[in-house]
TrEMBL record:
SUPFAM superfamilies assigned: UDP-Glycosyltransferase/glycogen phosphorylase
Protein name as catalogued: Glycosyltransferase family 1 protein
Taxonomic classification: Bacteria, Bacteria division WOR-3
Organism: candidate division WOR-3 bacterium
Length: 353
């Protein structure tokens, strides 16, 4: 099996993270992978987060670029018999549509849906996919209104593999204090932590670690350093660096409000494997999770979550253990294998047609 994957790669978007988690797991399984991704001057996300591997080809713009561009040659000349698209809405669809019949001649085609509702863009529906993959039943419920239901498959969003580092060592390596409880927030989502700062520091036990290059977050947090123990690192960490920060922390704050459409939290699935308990607002980003996170609906419940972190008792350990159990079930390796089984079934069907 040889896979061509079109979508984000080495950026901080949720779609890119999904591509990287399953794509790198495929490579570990011995699969030949070719990644077709965005030009560095026109990518989906806010930051480039890593160096490209030798199998990565940057050959198109986002759908928001003016003008949109796509170099067709890599798609036509690279060797693959499975073609996978991630987050079609961000891709130059009409350019892809002009060569899609050529791609279909040599590969089965799979569309991994990241959109949380049906789009009114006609360009989205011009492709005859062999399979459409979504993350849970909420996606299937609206997709079946526009697609043949037998082509829709549910494969959950993957988690980063478990990676736990000794907290003392992690803090020493990051030059972080050893004698305080550390709450962590990072990336663009750190902006939503600003509204919680006063409540966080109603407890003297905490310091807040903010790791982001997001300008709105930085503008909000820097003035607060005069009043509160806040450490700011202007970084867009790659996954290894991110896990060093997660393993140094006592809790990760995820205060993102609900979206008006179906969503999952790539941040939560990216971070569960660290064993750092996630303190999450009860939005639709986490509605498919249960006791894997510390969930709050209001200020009182948030303050109670902070008390659980300070105490580090049975409830704290329970959330940590259930989060890691979820990771074991839905690890990138396990999810990637479910995709490989789907591809094998589609290839077999094609051979027997």
């Amino acid at each position: 099996m040889k896979i061509g994957l079109m979508g984000g790669w080495n950026t901080d978007s949720g779609a890119s993270l999904h591509s990287e988690l399953i794509g790198r797991a495929w490579v570990e399984e011995g699969i030949k992978l070719t990644v077709f991704t965005f030009y560095k001057e026109s990518f989906h996300g806010t930051q480039i987060t890593g160096e490209d591997e030798e199998f990565v080809i940057r050959c198109f713009t986002t759908s928001r670029a003016e003008p949109q561009r796509l170099n067709p040659i890599p798609f036509l000349t690279e060797d693959y018999n499975v073609f996978v698209v991630e987050d079609l809405g961000m891709l130059p669809k009409d350019h892809l549509g002009k060569i899609f019949h050529r791609i279909k001649k040599k590969a089965i085609t799979v569309n991994i849906i990241h959109d949380g509702k049906l789009t009114d863009d006609p360009s989205f529906y011009q492709f005859d996919w062999d399979a459409i993959v979504c993350f849970d039943e909420r996606y299937r419920d609206f997709l079946k209104e526009a697609y043949d239901e037998e082509r829709i498959h549910i494969i959950p969003y993957p988690c980063h593999e478990q990676k736990i580092i000794d907290k003392t060592s992690a803090r020493r390596g990051l030059s972080l204090p050893q004698d305080k409880k550390i709450l962590f927030t990072f990336g663009p989502a750190s902006y939503y932590t600003l509204s919680l700062v006063e409540d966080i520091f109603s407890f003297k036990e905490f310091i807040l670690l903010v790791v982001t290059k997001h300008q709105n977050s930085l503008t909000g947090f820097y003035p607060l350093q005069e009043r509160y123990p806040i450490i700011i690192r202007e970084e867009a960490p790659d996954i290894n660096r991110l896990y060093e920060y997660l393993n140094s922390a006592d809790g990760l704050i995820f205060n993102k409000p609900s979206a008006r459409w179906v969503v999952v939290s790539s941040t939560v699935f990216q971070c569960l494997g660290s064993g750092c308990p996630i303190i999450a607002y009860a939005s639709n980003f986490i509605e498919t999770l249960k006791d894997e996170v510390l969930r709050y609906h209001n200020r009182d419940e948030f303050l109670n979550c902070l008390r659980i972190v300070i105490e580090g008792g049975d409830r704290y350990q329970q959330v940590r253990e259930r989060g890691l159990a979820y990771v074991q079930r839905n690890s990138a390796r396990n999810v990637a294998r479910r995709y490989l089984q789907l591809f094998e079934d589609l290839l077999k069907r094609r051979r027997n047609a």
